């Protein structure tokens, strides 16, 4: 190189190379609340009723006999408290005025916060073990699937299932156990006998890998390129049980949990009191302030339709 050659190392006027995109790898999927229906709520305590048929029996009436009347059990009235999920952010007016790369900060933070809150709703709807009435200093809380599933609860030795009611009693952890196909078959059978039709299995990512070793998969060989050459498929999404096909869904939101949930998606609903809204708050300085809020609860139409396998040490 000739002496005194001007290079980029000493030059101070070169423009930066910063593209107008921001990349985020954080997961945003919410399998459970995306799979169940949504309904409306009109109060902070959302209620519904459940009913059940009597056990089948041999019923034979005498010809010409007078009618006799069976004592009928009333419906069961259940409810769940609404939970306010929200977050706030503030952006200075100077930041909005300067030339910047990437999206407008208010738009970026609004979109990011909404995605985060959807994940928070998913987490609470699955893993909250009790509800909370709330007060002027305590937040209300909805009870999640983990707190509702009491009928078909398969935990480790020494543990106990959650107890119904509000706030209810959280499940007690038992001795750690491995997630096996035998446990899964037992849980599916119990839910089926109770009247449920489990069509969705929610697992942690590690639990999904354990699930892939079970023998009940129905798509083991797959023609990937439509060229007649089949490929061994070691991960599958459908489990063929004795009581129907079950979609196996890994859920990154509950990574680290020790449970597997069996869901009859027709028996759960997200009851929305206030949809996701963005509100600009009062200006208290040289910045714009925003709060994003959602309020709703989980409607457990009949928890006996599904199951929880708990205290797992390999998921």
Concise structural overview:
The chain is an alpha+beta fold. It contains six helices and 14 strands. It holds the Pfam family SU10_MCP.
What do these coordinates show?
By secondary structure, this protein is an alpha+beta fold. It has a single domain, classed as phage-related protein like fold (Alpha-Beta Complex). It is 18% helix and 26% strand. The chain has six helices and 14 strands. It has helices at residues 31-35, 93-97, 105-127, 145-148, 181-194, 205-211, and strands spanning 37-40, 45-50, 76-81, 83-92, 153-154, 200-203, 221-223, 230-232, 238-241, 244-250, 260-263, 268-280, 287-300, 307-309. The strands form four sheets. Strands 5-14-11-6-10-9 form a six-stranded mixed sheet. Strands 1-12-13-4 form a four-stranded mixed sheet. A two-stranded antiparallel sheet has the order 2-3. A hairpin with a 2-residue loop joins strand 9 (238-241) and strand 10 (244-250). The longest helix is centred in the middle third of the chain and has 23 residues, at 105-127. The chain is extended. The termini are far apart.
